[in-house]
Amino acid sequence: MAEKEHRAHAAGCHHKLPFRVKACTMFSAAHRIEGHPRCGRIHGHNYRVCIVLREDKPMGIDLDELEEWLQEHVFKRFDHQYLNKLLAEDGELPTVTSEDLAQMIASWLEKSYPGMVELVEVCETPQLCVEYIP
């Protein structure tokens, strides 16, 4: 059985995977939330994104590869962007919340690390964070 297939099979039950790996990155971006009294105006955040993966053995996840994944899929994609425009679908500007970002990042992460995603945390400030648990 291939290594990733083995992990996906073993990950069928998250509590059986004894090791957690956490990696974080930061990016600066702007967004707006249509109809919100304060956040309806374009404004920005210094976002922090942390991902937590479960693994079944020590050093089962290459940390350099995980850091590269974060840089490619999160930092390079979102840094210094207007998120509403970047993530527009069908020409409309969607509302982009931290919850939306966390869920989107988790779905991308699941493709690279099937069955291993425990949570994705997105923080707009050091005090305000959301966690998405797939």
Q: Whole-number radius of gyration?
A: 16 Å
Strand order of the largest sheet: 3-1-2-4-5
CATH topology: Tetrahydropterin Synthase, Chain A
CATH-assigned homologous superfamily: 6-pyruvoyl tetrahydropterin synthase/QueD
Determine the structural class based on helices, strands and strand pairing: alpha+beta
Low-confidence blocks of residues: 1-14
N-to-C CA distance: 25 Å
Number of structural domains: 1
Helix segment tally: 4
**Strand segment count:** 5
Major sheet size, sense and barrel closure: 5 strands, mixed
CATH class: Alpha Beta
Order of helices and strands: HEEHEHHEE
Strand content: 25-35%
Helix fraction, binned, reads 25-40%
Shape, per Cα inertia axes: elongated
CATH architecture: 2-Layer Sandwich
Instruction: Quote the average pLDDT.
Output: 87
Labels describing this entry:
134 residues, alpha+beta, Tetrahydropterin Synthase, Chain A, 29% strand, elongated
